[in-house]
User: What shape does this take?
Amino acid sequence: MKKGKTALVLNGSPRAKGNTAVVTQWFENALRRNGWAVTRFELHRLSYKGCAHCSTTCKKTSDRPGCALDDHLTPVLDEIAAARLIAIASPIYCWSVSGCTKAALDRFYCLFKNNGSLADGKKMVGLFTAGGDAFAGADLAVEMLKRIAEYGKAECAGTIAATGCDSPADLRRRKDIKAAVDALAGKL
Ligand SMILES: Cc1cc2nc3c(=O)[nH]c(=O)nc-3n(C[C@H](O)[C@H](O)[C@H](O)COP(=O)(O)O)c2cc1C
Assistant: This one.
């Protein structure tokens, strides 16, 4: 591992062997081949709430997330603040990311301080899988990730939208998507 090449993957799919897991595994393998240390969190297995907009502790700390909510996402937020690359992996649900992914993204609010962003200079990546076509929600998830990155002064380093997903077995045969994932990981 080269110094500082720490990547965090937040997987918001409930299916351990589903479509998102296939793309996530491809991405993690490619990252490791390129010298990254990768840690993955399975969001659906964690217990946490969305942002409460209390703005109590998080807006009074500048060097750490400081979220007032004390749940399974609290240590994940600390890991996010320490990592150089954050990958958000999610299936598309109802024209957006899955619920646990959205709740986690809302908690990113604690990274965005009044005097700067703890995400400043980090790379963000989106890995989305969808049953529908590119305009059945994957497009909106990609746009959302770009806007979050921009707001947090992070770099949206790339997105993968694996659309028209049927089964994980079918997805594994999609060499074009695997090649796109490898190319993305290789340029980070
Ligand atoms: C509750 C639910 C809502 C969904 N909504 C959409 C949608 O709006 N657009 C779309 O393209 N696919 C939609 N899908 C299909 C999933 O995005 C697709 O099957 C995805 O690859 C599942 O990923 P997974 O196997 O990692 O769970 C939906 C699936 C579920 C279960």
